[in-house]
């Protein structure tokens, strides 16, 4: 439910900009991957090698979400500045 609300909020921010909508969808997909990795780490894993793998995968997924989100908001900021110049 929270992911669906986040998706709707990001789509509203795009204001019909197709590139921004694509960024918003990419954020939601990367958040889904992060949730997958976090669920895998939260399972009771006896094998330390597997636990280490999922921990590293979750860290990478978190960095990916952060980078994509930053790029999305930077794009929105640039679009606002461009719209003001017109």
Query: How many distinct helices?
Result: 3
CA-to-CA gap between the ends?
A: 39 Å
Summing up helix and strand content along with how strands pair, one would put the structural category as mainly alpha
- Taking all Cα atoms into account, the compactness measure Rg is 16 Å
Produce a short descriptive summary.
The chain has 86 residues and is an all-alpha fold.
Explained architecture:
With 86 residues, this protein is mainly α. 87% of the residues lie in helices and 0% in strands. The chain is built from three helices and no strands. It has helices at residues 2-13, 18-42, 48-85. α1 (2-13) packs antiparallel against α2. It is elongated, with a radius of gyration of 16 Å. It starts with a helix and ends with a helix.
Write a concise keyword list for the protein shown above.
3 helices, mainly alpha, 86 residues, single chain, elongated
Chart the SSEs and their pairings.
Layout: H1 2-13, H2 18-42, H3 48-85
Helix pairs in contact: 1-2, 2-3
């Amino acid at each position: 439910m929270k992911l669906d609300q986040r998706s709707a909020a990001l789509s509203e921010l795009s204001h019909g900009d197709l590139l921004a909508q694509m960024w918003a969808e990419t954020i939601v997909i990367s958040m889904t991957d992060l949730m997958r990795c976090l669920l895998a780490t939260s399972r009771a894993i006896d094998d330390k090698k597997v636990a280490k793998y999922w921990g590293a995968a979750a860290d990478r997924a978190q960095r990916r979400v952060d980078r994509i989100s930053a790029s999305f908001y930077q794009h929105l900021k640039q679009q606002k500045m461009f719209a003001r110049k017109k």
